[in-house]
Amino acid sequence: MKLFNTLTQSLQDFAPIDDTVRVYVCGVTPYDTTHLGHAFTYASFDTLMRYLEYKGHKVRYVQNVTDIDDDIIRKSRELNMTWDELGNREIERFLGDMDALNLRRPAVYARATEEIERIIVLIQTLLERGFAYESEGCVFFDVHKDPEFDIMAQAIGLHSYQAMLTIANEHGNFPNDTRKNDPLDFVLWQAQAPGEPAWESPWGPGRPGWHIECSSMSMHFLGEQIDIHGGGVDLAFPHHACEIAQSEHVSGKAPFVRTWMHVGMVYQDGEKMSKSLGNLTLVRNLLKEYSADAIRILLDSHHYRYPWECFPQDLQNAAETADLFTQVRALVGPTPRGEDQMLRDLFEAAMDNDLNTPEVVLLLKHAAQDALEQKNTNLGAEVLHLTTVLGLRA
C-alpha cells in the first residue's frame, strides 16, 4: 500500500510502527452545522480506517474537537448562549450527521477543554528548553529557534517568510500583537480577555492556543510518534507545521508523524465551501433528498487529495449507482460472501494506490451491472462485500 505524504510530496510505502496503526485526524470547531466539505474529509478517513482493517491491521483512530475557540466565543455571543452550550449542541449535530452517513466513530473523540493540564506541561517543557517565551500572560513559540519550522511550508509551496506569514494571518495569526518577538511566532497560551472563559496556569488565567491542543491530544492518546496524521489541506500550514515543531521539541523524537495526509477542498459556486462565505451544502439537507449511500458514493467518487465542486448531476449519478447496488442486494439475498479473486485483486490494486476510491467506485459499478445481467449471485455478493469498505450499508 502506498500513500502520498504531504511532507515529502511523494508516494511512500506504508508500514506502521508496530502492530497497531495510530491515526490522528483534526476535527471540527463546533460553532455551525456540518457541510459537505467536512463530510468529504471525515468520510475519506473513515474509508481509510475500513481499508486498513480490511488488510488485517489493528487501528487506533483519534479525532479531536476544538471546543474552545475565538469563533465559538463570537458565535455564542451572537446567539446569546454560553460557549459550552453552543459547543455541545454543535458537537451532537456533527456526530449525528456523521452517524447518518455511516461513518464509524473514532476510538477517542478528544476535547481540547479536557486536555488543559497536559497542555500546560507541554508549554512548560518548551519554555524550559528555550523554544518558547512568556510575555504579558501569554506564551509564544519562537519560530526562529527552530531552523526546520518551514519544512511543511516548503513542501506545499510557501517558499518565503512573507508567504508563510500571509497564510498564517488568514488562519487567525495576529501579526501586530506587540507581545510577540516576531509576527510569525504563534501562541501556546493566550491571556484571558475580558468576558472570555479561562483556566488557571503558571502565566495567569487564559486558554491554550489552537496548535498546542492537537500536539497534546495526539501524544496523550497515541504516543510521541504516530503513523498517520490528517485533516483538510488548509491545515497543512500553519496548523500542522506548528504541531511538528511543538511535538518534536517536546519529545526529542522525529518524525512526529510518518505520513501526513491532507484532503482537498470542496467548492460550491466556484468558491471554497466554508462557513465564513456561507456557501454551504449541508449534510442534513442532502439527507432529506438522497440516501446516505448515495452521498458516500458521491464523496468516494472524488480522490481524497484533489479539490472538486459539487454539482446536482453528480448527486443524481451517485443516487443511480446506489440504486444499482440495491438491485444487487435484491439479487443476492441471503447468499454468503462471494469469492471473485479478479475483482478483489483489482479493488486492492486501486485502494493500495493512494486510496484511489474513484477507480473503485467505477470498478464496483461495472461489476454490479455484470452481476445483474448475468444473474451472478457470487459476483454480486463480492461486490456488496467490497462496498462496505467504502462505507456503504451493503
Which SSEs are present, and which pair or pack?
Blueprint: E1 2-5, E2 10-13, E3 20-25, H1 36-54, E4 58-65, H2 70-78, H3 83-100, E5 108-111, H4 116-128, E6 132-135, E7 138-141, H5 151-155, H6 161-170, E8 186-191, E9 206-208, H7 210-222, E10 226-232, H8 236-251, E11 257-263, E12 266-268, E13 271-272, H9 283-286, H10 292-300, E14 308-309, H11 312-332, H12 341-352, H13 357-374, H14 377-387
Parallel strand pairs: 3-4, 3-10, 4-5, 10-11, 12-14
Antiparallel strand pairs: 1-2, 6-7, 7-8, 8-9, 12-13
Helix pairs in contact: 2-3, 4-7, 7-8, 10-11, 11-13, 11-14, 12-13, 13-14
| Tally of strands | 14
How many helix segments?
Answer: 14
Mind describing the biggest β-sheet?
5 strands, parallel
State which percent range the strand residues make up. 15-25%
Oligomerization state: single chain
CATH class of the largest domain: Alpha Beta
Stretches where pLDDT is under 50 for at least 5 consecutive residues are none
N-end to C-end Cα span: 25 Å
Give the overall shape.
globular
Read across the widest sheet, the strand sequence of neighbours is 5-4-3-10-11
**Count of individual domains:** 2
Radius of gyration: 22 Å
Query: Structural class, judged by helices and strands?
Result: alpha/beta
Q: What do the pLDDT scores average to?
A: 95
- The helix/strand series, from N terminus to C terminus, equals EEEHEHHEHEEHHEEHEHEEEHHEHHHH
CATH superfamily of the largest domain: HUPs
Helix percentage range: 40-55%
CATH topology of the largest domain: Rossmann fold
